[in-house]
Design the sequence.
């Protein structure tokens, strides 16, 4: 009897070790620390700063001032590239303009710069004020719809405006993955 | 007799050992700081008409960690040259290093007609700090600590007494994706044109019919003389093809500077750091 209990405990222990649990939610960016700004690609025509306005997680958010140019926006350097165990990508975005603005979310699953047809790219209309964007990871198809993104190797997450003609100010917070 | 042979063998070994030690010491301690003026003669009647008699200097690949002997030598050379124009072709900082010494150095540069610059891949190793070349910290306001113009996939026309000159800069932020719009504009340029591109492989993207001069760096001349096949083996195509010096293909020309600093190893042999002085002839 003791032997059976011992073996069962051992089996359960091994099983637990094999199915390493992952948290229900993984915060990619919450923009609480200045060091978060080091994990963004700084490019011309976008100014990043931390702000206490329009925060939805913690006390700070990312303020983005986008100036008229081709594609100003958030270009992130992802620390977590394996998204396989999650189901949803979401983030909160606040539009300070009176009218809605269109943003594009681009996700690449290869390190090399991917062709437009071979990457995820989807437009969202952002109404004036607070918005929540939710993207089920099962919908991450390439633009030509030929394949699903490889969720174990996500290399880039870009959130940008296309050819804005006036200065835009957007606040982003809580970019996260959830199960 | 046997003892004598043994002694001769020992002397030879010692001689080669000492020579090697001297060469290594030279490569580490002397040559990397021995900045020279490299006079480069470029045959181009259109550029000669506009720039003849002007002192045009090119500086590249400073890779500064701190201001030392090498940087002081560059400043002394420039003070002596009193240049009309300075072109800077990128890599002012060490990889992800401190940007302050480079910013300080650049703020001390002076040229009578202007300074134009592009950034290299090392300058983007910390993209947040790279903004400091053009902007005040955490601001969209332009910096006033240096007087140079950074060209990021743009060109501008300057008016000189003998005619207009186009100066273009190809950015090196994303080496895989050069900006095709600026390349197309250069291919169709009718005016005398000088293009700054940190990466010399950009030369291949420009049409052979384009009459322009490209100024590049990035290779450091290899820092030591090595054959092309070796560079190819370690996948340094830029060094295999355009290690240093002047290249011509069709109408287009390119000068690749050995630069000032070093990367990977503080070592140079037969590849002295240089301030290039460009002379234009008919």
Sequence:
């Amino acid at each position: 009897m003791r032997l059976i209990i011992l073996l069962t405990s051992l089996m359960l222990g091994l099983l637990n070790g094999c199915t390493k649990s992952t948290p229900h939610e993984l915060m990619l960016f919450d923009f609480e620390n200045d060091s978060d700004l080091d994990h963004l690609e700084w490019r011309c025509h976008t100014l990043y700063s931390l702000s206490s306005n329009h925060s939805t997680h913690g006390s700070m958010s990312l303020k983005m001032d986008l100036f008229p140019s081709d594609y100003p926006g958030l270009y992130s350097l992802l620390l977590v590239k394996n998204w396989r165990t999650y189901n949803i990508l979401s983030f909160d975005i606040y539009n300070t303009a009176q009218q809605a603005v269109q943003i594009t979310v681009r996700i690449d699953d290869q390190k090399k710069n991917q062709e437009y047809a071979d990457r995820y790219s989807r437009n969202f209309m952002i109404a004036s004020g607070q918005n929540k964007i939710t993207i089920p990871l099962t919908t991450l198809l390439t633009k030509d719809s030929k394949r699903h993104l490889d969720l174990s190797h996500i290399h880039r997450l870009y959130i940008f405006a296309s050819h804005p003609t006036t200065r835009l100010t957007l606040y982003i917070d809580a970019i996260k993955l959830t199960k | 007799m046997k003892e004598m042979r043994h002694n001769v063998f020992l002397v030879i070994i010692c001689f080669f050992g000492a020579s090697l030690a001297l060469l290594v010491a030279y490569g580490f301690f002397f040559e990397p700081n021995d900045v020279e003026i490299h006079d480069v003669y470029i045959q181009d009647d259109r550029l000669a008409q506009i720039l003849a008699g002007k002192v045009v200097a090119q500086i590249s690949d400073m890779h500064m960690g701190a201001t030392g002997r090498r940087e002081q030598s560059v400043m002394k050379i420039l003070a002596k040259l009193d240049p009309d124009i300075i072109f800077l072709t990128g890599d002012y900082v060490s990889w992800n290093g401190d940007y302050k010494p480079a910013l300080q150095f650049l703020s001390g540069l002076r040229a009578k007609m202007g300074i134009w610059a592009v950034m290299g891949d090392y300058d983007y190793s910390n993209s947040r700090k790279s903004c400091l070349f053009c902007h005040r910290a955490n601001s969209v306001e332009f910096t006033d600590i240096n007087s140079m113009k950074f060209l990021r996939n743009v060109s501008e026309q300057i008016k000189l007494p003998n005619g207009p000159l186009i100066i273009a800069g190809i950015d090196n932020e994303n080496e895989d994706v050069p900006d095709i719009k600026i390349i197309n504009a250069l291919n169709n340029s009718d005016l005398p044109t000088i293009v700054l591109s940190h990466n010399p492989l950009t030369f291949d993207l420009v049409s052979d019919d384009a009459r322009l001069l490209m100024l590049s760096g990035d290779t450091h001349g290899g820092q030591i003389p090595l054959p092309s096949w070796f560079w190819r083996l370690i996948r340094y195509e830029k060094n295999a093809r355009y290690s240093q010096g002047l290249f011509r293909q069709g109408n287009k020309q390119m000068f690749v500077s050995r630069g000032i600093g070093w990367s990977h190893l503080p070592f140079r042999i037969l590849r002295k750091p240089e301030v290039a002085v460009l002379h234009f002839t008919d």
Notes: Helices of chain A lie at 2-18. Chain A has one domain: 22-178.
